[in-house]
Design goal:
transmembrane transporter activity, transport, Growth Hormone, Chain: A, globular, mainly alpha, 436 residues
Length: 436
Amino acid sequence: MLTSIQLLKKRNFLPLFVTQLLNAFNDNLYKNAMVLFVVYQVYNSAEAEAQFSAVASGLFILPFFLLSALAGQLADMRDKAKIIRWVKGAEIVIMTCGATGLYLAWRAMLIESLAIPLMLLALFAMGIHSTFFGPIKYAILPQHLDREEVLAGTGLVEAGTYIAILAGTILAGWVPVEVAGIIVVIMAVVGFLTSRQVPAAPPLETGQVIDLHVIRSSITLIRNTMKDREVFYAIMAISFFWTIGAVLFIQFPPLAKNVLLASKEVASLFLVTFSIGVAIGSVSINTLLKGKVSARYGPISVLAMGAFVVLFYFVCRLWSQNVSGDLMGVGEFLAQPLAPLVLGTLMLIAISGGMFVVPLYAFLTTKVDPGQAARTVAANNIVNSGAMVGGSLLAAGLSAAGIALVEQLLLSGGMCLISAWLGALLHRAEKHAAKQ
């Protein structure tokens, strides 16, 4: 924990930390403001709401699948700090487009024909934005930090991301949608200004040619990256973890409204609780591992996550049997006897999930040559996004098939068993590599 606090005082870490924190804040303020408005104000059907949530998630994820290879090459072959500034500059334009969509939705002007398409266009563009920013925020750490600081830095980046998600989610649930539109534009400008303070991070390898062929470069990138067994298992474990995450996040807004009878303010409280939990897990795993990059606690962490998801399923079943009527505000929800159990299980799901995934990201940047780090993260993003798109399609298909939202939770819990198996394979490969 001391190492983490000390990192925040470093000139080569703090500007990056603040920039990515603002990036995550803006992403989530915008996405949640959009989804909550559409779910609570436009549609009045659990199936339509779940399908819209799936479409929105799919649009955001798609650029990761298509463009991560190019993003990884650029990050390794050009100055990472310059790319960050270009990306953050583009965010100002994207958020202006998204804010226009939010404003039109607020005024009930052309909602179906213009407001929603504009909002989804901005969401897709933010997916492109995050595709190019994502490899850098991890790959730059080994370049700016000592090796023993990388796990702490990765944990702080993850914790900061979820603290930002927390702040963005709170605002999305509580401020009017038109105010959210103004805030995202302001934060985009502030993020650009902080990005200008990130120290230079020139390429560690020179003279390489960027392959602009999206499909060929993606296949080549994945094939080259997967040769290392530890990196291979880390990528597979992360990807399956985010498949579970995609299913859970798609289920969550309509589940909160239609099963837990929660208002959008309560739905925001749920996401806040989840974000705090992931932040706690992200930082605490560094304390447990004492700065060493290891998958030692991976299998038990994700098994615990699966158990808590199943517990959450039973809590939701009990809730639906004992509560009926109109949507509840925060005060009414917290007065329910089962409310502490709902929030507690969400918190435990998030803590165990954070403890599982943070060391895996550290594997990606410490087990390869620093000059290949961004491409390794990009390869991970390609596989992750493919898995998450699959998860989005699965969630949409289950909803279209009429399977109750609460029953879909059991699928997420069961999928944690596969993540635990992949985590065990990674730990075995880690021990094997240590003997050589």
